[in-house]
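Continuing the series of single-chain predictions for the mutant panel. This is the parent chain; the variants come on the following pages.
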Amino acid sequence: MKKHVFLCLMAIAFLGLQGMGQPAYLEGNWTGTWSSGNALTNRGVVYATRVQATATNANTPFLFNNANQDYNPKWVGSNSNFTRTTNTLYAGGAYYFTSGSWDHNLEISATANNYYTFIIGQNSGSNNDLSILETTYNPTLITGVSQSPLTVHNGEVVTITVTVNNTTLNSGEYLFVRWTNDAWATSSFTSAITISSGSGTATIPAQGGGVTVQYYALTTNQASPVTSTVDYYTLDIDNGVNNANYAYTTTAWLLPITLQSFTAQKQNEVSVLNWTTANEENAAQFDIERSVNGQNFSTIATVMAGGNSNTLHTYHFTDLKPETGLNYYRLKMLDQDGHFEYSKIILLDFDAVRPVISLSPNPGQNLVHLYTGQKTGNIMIFNSLGDLVKLIPSTGSKDGNYDIDTQDLPDGIYQVVAIFDNGQRANTEMVLSR
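Parent structure:
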């Protein structure tokens, strides 16, 4: 009984899919007679199929439908717009037709013995994007995709091996691995893969821990594919079972190091870092890494580990030259095999001592005294519109005292900006009132 119910549900689902009007077949005349029954293959976000023309015809007609030799619905051109050029993406270029007399078969100029890969979108009951890729060669088929290692840890580069049905690729044909680490919000292509003896490799860069990477292999007639349009320029694709893509999730190395504490403190103008381990086995070293933005870290020192210990072990490091402003610190803990993991990140802020400038009198009239406390570069005065109205060169003072002639400036509010020799700036407001 359950089997019969299941079969009925499947039949209803199939009929429902057809009723929705998704394209499923390509029909056309590329052999000298009308040919039907070219089933489209589901590539995940598009449908595609390939034919070889056996006759040259500048007006080769074709259409898409969702049931063989059933022309309601169908995807066609219109009486005034039906010619399509190969190797071009047409947004909404396959028109959805159910009734009326405005329809016209789509047409391309076909050359005998050339191959044509038809690609159409998966919209139901509406127009679909369309492309037809023309090649003088029978496109290479991807026959297998594998990765190494199968279990991927953070910091490991993954090698993808792609096998094909030819010993090499055709001229003008390119093989890539497309991958993402943010569920296809963005994606990247590996460098074009060189095929030798039927296979080639590509690499996916190392990721952090707990990152899911999805990827698939594709061939295209584009040397530099674009993520937004690549689906309509793909000759062949291997994106896993049921178009689910290949995937792996990185896991952190289980290092035999137990970090019990990690602290960082400001002491005058230096950073003092302390950390304690409760257990070490095969430990190699601790890299102290620093960043000014919390994202891009660089190693500033290395402290060797005790190696093997099951008691508390305390380490220290002093950063004698922290950066002015924000300093992010973390530990990179490595074992003898090169595996590693990171500690938490600690932030210390070394605020810059900003110079102060003063004016007197302020408000002023025709002569204002500026004191900067040290020799500066240029002194600049801007009006309330942000226009530079006066520039005083650095030769104006050797000790930071300036007498500014303001007779030529109208009453109003100004900004005085001093640029110091060390690159720092200071500014203050100046009011002129006569």
